[in-house]
Queue: 3 jobs
Job 1
Amino acid sequence: MLKSWNPPEMPEKEEIAQRLDKARGKMYELQMKIKEHKIPVLVLFEGWSSAGKGSMIGKVIKNIDPRFFKVATMSAPTEDELRRPFLYRYMRQIPEQGKFTFLDSGWMEETTKEVLEDGLSGEDYEKRIDSIKRFERQLTDNGYLVVKFFMHISKDEQAKRMKGLLSGEDTQWRVQKFDQWQNEHYGKCEKVYDRYLKDTNMSTSPWYIVDAKNKKWAELQVLETLVSNIEVGLQNQMHSVPILQNVFPLVKMPKLQDVELEGKVIEEEEYRKELKELQKRLRELHNRVYRKRVPVIITYEGWDAAGKGGNIKRITGALDPRGFEVHPIASPEPHEKARHYLWRFWTRLPKDGHIAIFDRTWYGRVMVERLEGFCSENDWKRAYNEMNEFEKELHDWGAVIIKFWVQIDKDTQLERFTDRQNNPEKQWKITDEDWRNREKWDLYEDAVNEMLKKTSTTFAPWHILESVDKKYARIKALKIVIEELEKALD
């Protein structure tokens, strides 16, 4: 793209001034519509060192109410960020509905630096590109406007600007060693940037190359492009998004009504013996998980009163409390609801070597949100593929993903509901919502069957825990966790 790029003809100064006034006014007007229509806007500035990314952001935000934007400078990842998936720190920055986030460099700079400095190439490079393209597509599919700018200057212009910065005591700090190396190896860098731009130039999030030699002209290009994109985004807000075909290998799952529950019991003495032995083994494995820096994600879904809490308690009873966290997932908070539905799970991912346990998960999208009308049909139908992509990202990061569905029958649930209702010490466990959900048992069963069928991948399969006898389910869960950790560690 860079090598074949033809810069637009720069207008006369008078025309630039007139168009800038118009674009600034339009930008101020449109930011109110963004707020009104609840469209989240993510603007990424990439480009050559000294091309003016930071100062450009400063000019753009003058036209926006400061209550409705955030600016983030994405410097080198911290030690904590390096222990998490590549996209973790970028997903954390996505804006709420009706707001802007401006990124001073981002996933392009980090990726191309790895290519230039660390030799990221071949299959690893292709995986990274696939991750980035999925990330951007998921944002735009979920209503985000993603606008990407590459600030372009020549080698001579870059050298001239850096010389000026280095000559002043107060500006020397702005020129880093990599910036000087980049200018010395301009041709090599241009080749890497050109390939990246081609690889990630998509119709839903295209690249806009900005001729950044003249600062007023560069500002006009950016503002007019932003205005145009926002206007199109407002027009397309209600359009449905195509449902993508699943491309990941699946594991065949039984329908819930075919899961055999009878006879899945364990005697108390045997339970106590196995529990002690399995927890001891899991405790040993947790130490190895930490030493080898393997991230572990254990998720629980299941019927109300199926025994998820007690099951989780037997897992955590074997773990070092410094190395795990349990996330009970309830209805999203307002700031969570205002973002991509996976955002609140991305931000709860463990560091490598740690274990995250989710009591309820992202699968609420295709169960409660689907059945209660909290999202559109297009939203939940798209979600199967989006969640497979999310888990593939975690798998490629190196995470062990263990997904449990805790299964009971309708009669067992009624018996447990009644016990909770009649026992003062357990009444806090039962709510009106539990009874309402029970009335929709058949609808939920159909939704769960579809979920199991479409999201049990080879890298993150579902495991069904027969839990009419809770003790049986606990032992089975411990055995599965141990088996999966041993496979990963070996």
Note: The mean pLDDT is 96.
Job 2
Amino acid sequence: MNVNIMDERWNKLLAPGRRKKERQGGDQSTRADETRTEIERDYDRILFSTPVRRLSDKTQVFPLDKNDSVRTRLTHSHEVSNLARSIGMALAFNYKIAGESDAAKRDIPALLAAIGLVHDLGNPPFGHQGEAAIQSWFTDHRVSVLESADRPLSEHQKEDFLKFEGNAQAFRLVTRLQLLNDDFGLDLTYATLSAM
């Protein structure tokens, strides 16, 4: 495949644009003295965010584990992120999926590290079993909680409880809930949001 075509594909897939700058009509370029790529900046935004810090208060549960060491979801997320970055390095440099694109060689490992770090943000305690418990509880208490006149919720909001899903919650955390004064949250790149 032509190198230019491969570079164009990676440039499209690793879209560095951000929703906030685009919607506000701002300049999408990075400062001249910035040494990080936009996707590397995403990793840093996620790393220093409040939802990631909260992972230190959540135990990573392993059913019937023989080892008595307790690990947090923060530790787990750092491990996943590190492993994902290593896979990205192998893909970019050993398997050369990025071709000769230096930008893609930097961004692929950074993107995988970012999504590895963010992968557990929206999960409730006990992971998928916790999701099922939340769904079940709200189904059982729909009338008293979701249909209550003093707390009117839209049908869409009710469905968020009735069909609670950790990945969707993680997406809400980074796009809306992290910063309450706008609708952009961490304002991650299109590439990172798409990879999530």
Note: The mean pLDDT is 88.
Job 3
Amino acid sequence: MLKDFVKEQKPEDEEMKTSLKEERAALSALQMKIKESKLPVMVIFEGWGAAGKGSVLGKIIKNIDPRFFRVSTMDKAPSEEEKRRPFLCRYLVEIPEAGKFQFFDTCWMEEVTQGVFSGNLSDEEYKERIHSINTIERQLTDNGYLIVKFFFHISRKEQKKRLAELKEGENTSWRVGEEDLWQNEHYSHCEEVFDKYLTDTNRSAAPWYIIDAKDKKWAELQILRYLNQAIDTALKNHSLAVPILQNTFRLKHQPLLKDIKLNKSVSDERYKKDLKKLQDELQDLHNEIYHKKIPVIIAYEGWDAAGKGGNIKRITEALDPRGYVVNPIASPEPHEKARFYLWRFWNRLPKTGHIAIFDRTWYGRVMVERLEGFCSENDWQRAYNEINEFEKELSDWGAVVIKFWVQIDSDTQLARFTDRQNTPEKQWKITDEDWRNREKWDLYEVAINEMIQKTSTNFAPWYVLESVDKKYARIKALKIVIKRLREACDQYDARH
């Protein structure tokens, strides 16, 4: 893209002045339409060192109410803490709420290309990063985000001149780093790497705009024009349905809920004996996965009163409290509802060597949100593939993803609801919403079956816990967790 870049004719001074005034006013007017339509806008500035990203960004945001935008500067290498989470995490936590702008002074491009320059990123790792970036950008745009990406382009000669001027200035010399000087010295090599990255991540839903950045006013005008056009198009497309993608993941066949036998049980004596043995084993494994820096995600879904809480408790009893967290997931808060639905789960992922347990999960999209009308049919139909992609990203990062569906029958639920309602110390566990959901049992069963069938993959299969006998379900869950963690540790040993 850079090598084929043809500069647009720069306007004369008077025309430039008039056009800038018009485009600035247009952006100022469009921000209110963005707010009204709840369109979230990500604007990404990338480019050569000393190309003027910061100064032009400062001019662009002057046209927007400061209550409706934020700027994220992502040019620093990830911290040791950030390196212990998936590559995309530190960027995704910065995405905007609906109706607002988020400007990125460099985003994921910087980290990837620096990894190539330093030799820390292999060809295979580069391809994986590109796939992750293209996938998340597509997911965001499918879910209503506008992503506008600009690359500030200057010649080697122009960059050298600007770096020299900055170095000579008493108040600007600090802005010239070793990376900038190295970049200019190896301009041709950097251009090749940048060009490849831009080509590899140039998609119709989130295209790259190459900006002739030699003149700052001209750069500003180009960006305003492209940005205003992109916003105008996005506002027209905002309410349109998005195509449902074909599944590309190998799925594991799962029985329908009605075909699962629920008469499984364990004696009290066997339960006590197995519980202690399995918890001791899990305790040892927790130390091992911490040492080997293997992240673990355990996701619980199930019928109300199925016994998720007690099941989780028997797992956490065996764990070092410093190495796990339980995330109880309720209805999204306003600031969560205003973002991509997976955002709040990206924010709760564990560090390497830690365990995150989710009491309810991202699968609310294809159950509660589907049945209660909190999202459109197009939204929840797309979500199966988006969730599979999310879990594949976690698996590729090295996480063990374990998903439990806690299964009971309708009569068992009724008995447990009645017991909760009639026992004072348990009444906090039962709500009117639980009874309303119970009336939709058949509809939920259809949705759950579809969810399990479409999202039980090789890397993140579903495990059904027969929980009419809660003790049986607890022992089964412990055995599955231990098996999966042992496999992960064995795979680690084989690689090292």
Note: The CA atoms of residues 484 and 490 lie 10 Å apart.
